[in-house]
Design brief:
Order of helices and strands: HHHHHH
Distance between the termini: 78 Å
Shape: elongated
Helix content: 55-70%
Number of strands: 0
Largest sheet: none
Number of helices: 6
Length: 112
């Protein structure tokens, strides 16, 4: 009995290897690299952006992030006193976040 189990496993492995080998030789698919674009360097006017119907969705998504409270607190304590007129682009760059998150942090802090 032990010899049969070993033989079955070898046979299955050979079939798998042959199938994989012949399939990879037949089809050579090379995935195209995806371009990742960052929004961090965009210049956006907050007043224009808030008129967009997707603004409430961006606010909700950003505020639900587990990092939001820490980022907003850091902005209030460290960045705002030194640079009260910081642009969304600069804030996004300093905090390594998207410009959308920076817009929400700036808007939330300037409403208070």
């Amino acid at each position: 009995m032990p010899g049969i189990k070993g033989w079955d496993a070898t046979l299955k492995q050979d079939k798998l290897h042959k199938h994989t080998k012949s399939r990879s030789e037949e089809v050579s698919i090379k995935p195209e690299p995806r371009k990742k674009t960052s929004t961090r360097m965009m210049d956006i006017d907050l007043s224009e952006f808030k008129a967009n119907p997707l603004w409430p969705i961006l606010v909700e998504t950003t505020m639900r992030s587990p990092l939001y409270s820490g980022l907003a607190g850091y902005y209030q304590d460290k960045i705002l006193p030194k640079d009260p007129d910081i642009s969304p682009k600069e804030l996004a760059s300093k905090l390594s976040i998207s410009i959308g998150e920076a817009l929400v942090i700036l808007d939330a802090n300037h409403r208070e």
